[in-house]
Amino acid sequence: MPTLWVDADACPRVARDIIVRAAERTAIQTWFVANHQIPLPPSKWVKGLAVSHGFDAADNEIVLRIETGDLLITADLPLALEAIDKGAMVMTNRGEALTANNIRARVQMRDFMETMRASGEHTGGPKGYSDADRREFANALDRWLARHGRKKI
């Protein structure tokens, strides 16, 4: 049975709520990992893991624990690359699949944009989390759970 891992430091609350409901509905073990305590409902299936406040501490903990076949939900591209290299599946909190076929190009683009920002170029930040993002994420998570998770209870 796969485990769901959530890079919870930057996960929007609305996506967190979708994940919690899906985990309860499908009885899939789900871990929210962050460098602070994440408010979560009492649950047999949903747990929080607060790690030290060091740089990338939550990412390192996820990489240490994630296994082949697990699903990671993150927008952190370097973390996604490490998880994919370990055989995990990765989805953004907007429902986009990150795979071995697209992750390296995405990391390279991220690094390029970071270089541009460091040189003073204004590149803008991520767009806000919209209702369309919420729907796409919920649908993508449901599709993944239908293929890889337990049957609905």
TrEMBL record:
Family: Belongs to the UPF0178 family.
Organism: Halomonas huangheensis
PANTHER family in the record: UPF0178 PROTEIN YAII
Spans through the membrane: none
CDD domains per UniProt: PIN_YqxD-like (cd18720)
Pfam assignment, any one: DUF188
UniProt-listed HAMAP family: UPF0178
Name recorded for this polypeptide: UPF0178 protein BJB45_13345
